[in-house]
Amino acid sequence: MNGQRAVPGSKEAIGPREARSSPCRLNGCFHCCEGTEMPLTQEDVDRIAALGFVPGDFLVRRDGWLQLRNTAEGRCFFLSNGQCSIYPDRPEGCRSYPVVFDEGGKNALLDPECEHHHGFTISARKASRVGALARRLRRERMERMSPVAKRQDEQ
Ligand code: SF4
């Protein structure tokens, strides 16, 4: 699921897999949950941790971003038997995917790396949501990268 960081991204309040006619369901596809780079908001982390998961187990820190961890097999920590084991609580980016934002953060687009992206559309509402998510992720990263936040993180 590359392009997630630009997104995010990655995956509307009603995710693609919830719709019976979604390209994901129709094609039995979960490739976007393999090799994930899905960035997480602090709210995502707190929500998932409240389920009993340890953040150190399911996330990695990379250059100020918090991202979903992949298993040794290269799949999202939460992917189990081709299904998301935390679906109702999955990250915001996972809800919007394959709508992502370009690297400049100005244009919403369908991730061309999703092999079924032609089956999706970008509504104005979804573009707005993903834009807000992209801004939030960048803001949280900047806060994390601030000297004060970095010191606190190291303690
Ligand atoms: S959290 Fe769920 S929907 Fe998101 S990448 Fe992992 S398995 Fe897929």
Question: Mind explaining what this structure looks like?
Answer:
- With 155 residues, the chain is of the alpha+beta class.
- The protein has one domain (16-154).
- It has helices at residues 23-27, 42-49, 55-58, 92-96, 124-145, 147-154, and strands at 59-62, 65-68, 79-80, 83-84, 99-101, 108-110.
- The strands form 3 sheets. It has a two-stranded antiparallel sheet with strand order 1-2. The chain has a two-stranded antiparallel sheet with strand order 3-4. It has a two-stranded antiparallel sheet with strand order 5-6.
- The longest helix has 22 residues, at 124-145.
- It starts with 22 loop residues before the first helix and ends with a helix.
- It binds iron/sulfur cluster.
Strand order of the largest sheet: 1-2
Average of pLDDT: 85
Number of strands: 6
How would you describe the shape? globular
For the largest beta-sheet, the strand count, sense and barrel status come to: 2 strands, antiparallel
- Overall radius of gyration: 15 Å
The fraction of residues in strands falls at 5-15%
Q: Count of helices?
A: 6
| Element order: H for helix, E for strand | HHHEEEEHEEHH
Distance between the termini: 32 Å
- Number of domains as seen in the coordinates: 1
Structural class: alpha+beta
Could you name the ranges where pLDDT drops below 50 across 5 or more consecutive residues? 1-17
Helix content: 25-40%
* Hetero groups: iron/sulfur cluster
Structure described in brief:
The chain is α+β, with helices and mostly antiparallel strands and 155 residues long. It is built from six helices and six strands.
